[in-house]
Amino acid sequence: MDNIKKASNFISEIATEITQALASRGAMDFYLGETVPERLLKLFRPVFIEVTCFAIWYTGKNPYHHDQISGIHDLSAEMGIEFDPLLKERIDCYEASSDPKSTFVLLCNYIGNNEKNSRGPIKPDDLNYKSNYQNKSELLVQLASENLESVFSSK
């Protein structure tokens, strides 16, 4: 149970870092629209769900069972998403990808770039742009995926 709690905390930390990077806005955004705290709150839930899906896919048969991840089913239900079908979709997406880490980066950046996704699941067909890791959020998401890989591969 201790390992599950550690995994859940680690996933929360990664989701928080990614959300903070995705919520970074230019000075004009403060005058024209929502504030950073509003954006953080809007982005955290879908980012947390994506990080959880990636961690579950990456760990495979390790003892980090997704039912034990803190409130993932409740969080998904609040967004109108059934977690288990979404998880299956993500696992299939990662399995079909030649570069699952890049797919994870695209999914996280898609959340940050498309406000509608703060309210529902992303379909792999929606990912219609290439990620080039040139901005801060893309770099952070890439580093987060590497951190997940290093932590879970050592278990």
What structural class do you assign from the helix and strand content? Answer: mainly alpha
Low-confidence stretches: 128-134
Number of domains: 1
Radius of gyration: 15 Å
Number of strands: 0
Number of discrete helical segments: 7
> Which percent bin holds the helix content?
55-70%
Largest sheet descriptor: none
Task: Report the span from N to C terminus.
Answer: 14 Å
Q: How much strand?
A: under 5%
Helix-strand pattern: HHHHHHH
- Specify the overall morphology: globular
Could you report the average pLDDT, rounded to the nearest whole number? Answer: 71
Summarize the SSE layout with pairings:
Elements: H1 2-23, H2 27-32, H3 36-59, H4 72-78, H5 83-96, H6 100-113, H7 136-153
Helix pairs in contact: 1-3, 1-6, 1-7, 3-5, 3-6, 3-7, 5-6, 6-7
Question: Could you name the key traits of this structure?
Answer:
155 residues, globular, single chain
Structure described in brief:
The chain is mostly helical.
